[in-house]
């Protein structure tokens, strides 16, 4: 791989190797020009005030290097798909509400990682608990009857209700 000042003519995108979507975006991709030369182009887009600027670095690739980067890109794509499937599986489990088994079967969590237990609705009331013993009514107890710690947990796990009450209290 040899660093060069620019590509030899117009290039066409072939495949992406990686993209880092952080505060400053970095991407690495392979391009090919009309005469069959391959280039690795590293693009760094960085934040400057309220705008972005970018720097491209060009590398002329040899044929073995193209194959290496192509295998790397395929492996990363495979890993992304596996991660997406795992996230999908977890979301599906979360949607099944993780009903408790045994002691109090009418409590459930909206997500596996949640602290709050929700009680199955009765008569349109939204009831929840932190310990399945002290039960709060969402419409009458939130936020006044919650401790500051409980309110922080509730707000973190339930952004919908936070927005709902903000609009309602305007």
Question: What labels describe this entry?
Answer:
five-stranded antiparallel sheet; 4 helices; 170 residues; alpha+beta; four-stranded antiparallel sheet; 34% helix
Q: Could you walk me through the main structural features you see in this protein, from its secondary elements to its overall organization?
A:
With 170 residues, the chain is an alpha+beta fold. Helices cover 34% and strands 35% of the residues. The chain has a five-stranded antiparallel sheet with strand order 1-5-4-3-2, covered by helices on one side. The model has no long low-confidence stretch (mean pLDDT 86).
**In one word, what is the shape?**
elongated
Summed over residues and divided by their number, the pLDDT gives a mean of: 86
Look at the helices and sheets and give the structural class.
alpha+beta
Low-confidence stretches: none
Largest sheet: 5 strands, antiparallel
Could you give the topology of this structure?
Blueprint: E1 2-4, E2 11-20, E3 25-33, E4 38-48, E5 51-61, H1 63-95, E6 107-108, E7 117-122, E8 125-129, E9 135-137, H2 138-141, H3 148-157, H4 159-168
Antiparallel strand pairs: 1-5, 2-3, 3-4, 4-5, 6-7, 7-8, 8-9
Summarize, please.
The protein is an alpha+beta fold and 170 residues long.
């Amino acid at each position: 791989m040899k660093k060069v000042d620019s590509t030899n003519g117009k290039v066409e995108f072939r495949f992406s190797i990686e993209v880092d979507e952080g505060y400053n975006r970095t991407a690495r991709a392979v391009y090919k020009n009309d005469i069959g030369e391959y280039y690795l182009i590293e693009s760094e887009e960085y934040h400057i005030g309220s705008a972005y600027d970018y720097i491209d670095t060009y590398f002329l690739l040899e044929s073995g290097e193209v194959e290496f980067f192509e295998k790397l890109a395929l492996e990363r794509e495979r890993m992304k798909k596996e991660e997406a499937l795992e996230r999908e599986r977890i979301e599906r489990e979360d949607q099944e509400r993780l009903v408790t088994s045994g002691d109090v079967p009418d409590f459930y969590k909206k997500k596996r990682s949640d602290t709050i237990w929700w009680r199955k609705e009765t008569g349109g009331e939204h009831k929840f608990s932190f310990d399945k013993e002290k039960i709060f009514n969402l419409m009458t107890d939130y936020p006044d009857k919650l401790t500051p710690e409980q309110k922080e947990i509730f707000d973190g796990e339930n952004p919908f209700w936070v927005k709902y009450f903000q609009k309602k209290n305007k």
